[in-house]
Amino acid sequence: MEGPARLADVVAAAERLYPPELAESWDAVGLVCGDPDAQVGRILFAVDPVAAVADEALVWGADLIITHHPLFLRAVHGVPATTPKGRLVHRLITGGVALFTAHTNADRAAPGVNDALAAALGLEDTRPLVPADGGDPALGLGRVGRLPRPEPLAAFAHRVAGALPVTAAGIRAMGDPHAVVETVAVCGGAGDSLLGAVRAAGADVYVTADLRHHPSSEAGEAGGPALVDVSHWAGEWPWLGSAAALLTVELSAAGSTVETRVSTTPTDPWTLHQPAQVPGSDEGAHAER
């Protein structure tokens, strides 16, 4: 008969799915706060460990929040409630809510963040864009796959916009709107450092976030690939549902049952978009929240 899970059991299951050794050396993954012997009945999945997510967890009665982004990436010497991150830790501990992070280990895992993004866009026959060391062909950063049928870049950009959560900034694309695309590379989060690998993979278009001016301009001058720039938060959000389902199965196999919820709280930092205006236009700014 299934029963509640201990936090230690949930952590062990999550680390089987997203092994800590896959994380970058600079990363901070794993259990941030919480008693390993505490019982976990409800788990909230979110991209960012921010105050709005803590509010959602406390109102719902979550025992654990699993986030993609770490709360602490740099060393700290205290967590006083006089700082935003300190206040968050105090609220979680006082409310009996643990916090666990799977970041670049979830990026490299299979299935992980990039598999979820590729699936959301309908890609088939995916493979890692940058394979991980160790010989496992499924592990690595980014994914490359193909669309079921080729389509113009403009139609593909529409596909991306429809597949991801709405944000104030939406998405933007670089390239000929009529150019036909079939091979697609994706990388959840900031991915312009992988542009060389994207070109080597022969991708027609690359979907990622936080694209900078100069690398994007150079990609255009080099003849491609076309680029689709999405919100960092939105590009990683599809992973949450995948992670929740996988962890539920993993815990059930071990004799534990949990209730999961994917946060729909938008934690993208951009809240306002002012589109370019025709001279003389008096259109106001458009807010998405």
UniProtKB/TrEMBL annotation:
Gene3D superfamilies listed in its UniProt record: NIF3 (NGG1p interacting factor 3)-like
Leader sequence segment: none
Family assignment from sequence similarity: Belongs to the GTP cyclohydrolase I type 2/NIF3 family.
Residues spanning the membrane: none
Binding site for a divalent metal cation: H68, H69, D107, H232, E236
Species in which this protein is naturally found: Jiangella ureilytica
InterPro entries assigned: DUF34/NIF3, DUF34/NIF3_sf
Recorded superkingdom: Bacteria
Chain residue ranges for the region called Disordered: 259-289
One Pfam family named in its UniProt record: DUF34_NIF3
Keywords, comma-separated and alphabetical: Metal-binding
Identification of the protein by name: GTP cyclohydrolase 1 type 2 homolog
Bias (Polar residues): 259-268
GO cellular component assignments: cytoplasm
One annotated GO molecular function: metal ion binding
